[in-house]
Amino acid sequence: MGNKGFLFIFYQAAGKKKKADINALVLDRASKAGLNKDDIFLVYSTSKASSQFLIDRFSEKYRVGVVVACGGDGTVHSIGNLMIDTALTFAILPLGTGNDFYAGLYGNRSVKDQIDHIFKGKTSETDAIYIPELDLHTMNILSVGADANVVFQANDFKEKHKFLQK
Q1: Is 149 helix (H, G, I), strand (E, B) or coil?
Q2: Are the CB atoms for 57 and 146 separated by under 8 Å?
Q3: Which of 66, 90, 95 is nearest to 79 (CA)?
Q4: Which of these, 14, 26, 79, 125, has the minimum number of CB atoms within 10 Å of its CB?
Q5: Residue 67 and residue 8: Cα distance in Å, rounded?
Q6: What is d(CA 116, CA 109) in angstroms, rounded to the nearest whole number?
Q7: Which of 77, 50, 62, 67 is nearest to 123 (CA)?
Q8: CATH architecture of 5-141
């Protein structure tokens, strides 16, 4: 068994931030936190099955470990469902467009600050709701729907004015 390990799972298509820059930032912050770089894993996943494989292998090596979903709300939901029945800690590195779930938990905390919080072991609890018809869990925050309406209207506007999409 190794020390405490950190598995950062990036969804291959998620996020617009430069992955090399994020990788360098993670490794830099790990070094500053005094962590062994051999206990930091930065991996890319293309499917739920590959993410499950990575988590299973990681949990075999690290009894005490943190799995970090690196992406947007979809990545968080997917990795979070794979983490439900593990003893590992689940964390989020917000690399998506909206990051609504993350923002509901942490506000406008920067990526650098979130990495530091992850390495320091600072956690927040959230509820997971099981949906038996889908055999899935959902993590949720309370919303009055205004944010969803803004996203809907922004997407509608982009469709009507394609030249503004860039």
Answers
A1: helix
A2: no
A3: 90
A4: 125
A5: 6
A6: 11
A7: 67
A8: 3-Layer(aba) Sandwich (3.40)
Cα separation values, 23 from 33, 43, 160, Å: 15, 10, 37
pLDDT tens digits, residue range 60-74? Answer: 999 889 999 998 888
Residue carrying structure tokens 């979070």? 80
Q: Residue 148: pLDDT band by 50, 70, 90 thresholds?
A: low
Which of 38, 79, 90 minimizes the C-alpha distance to 61?
A: 38
The token pair that represents 85 in the structure block: 């029945």
Report pLDDT digits (tens) over 82-138.
998 888 999 999 988 778 788 878 888 889 999 999 999 887 777 788 888 888 887
Burial class (CB in 10 A: 0-12, 13-18, 19+), 37: exposed
From its phi and psi, is residue 137 left (phi > 0), alpha (psi between -120 and 50) or beta?
beta
Both tokens of 84, joined, read 């439900």
Handedness of CA 78, 14, 45, 112 (dihedral sign): negative
User: 57-91 b/e with 16+ CB inside 10 Å = b?
Assistant: ebbeebeebbbbbbbbbebbbbbbbbbeeeebbbb
Q: Which two tokens stand for residue 30?
A: 């790990």
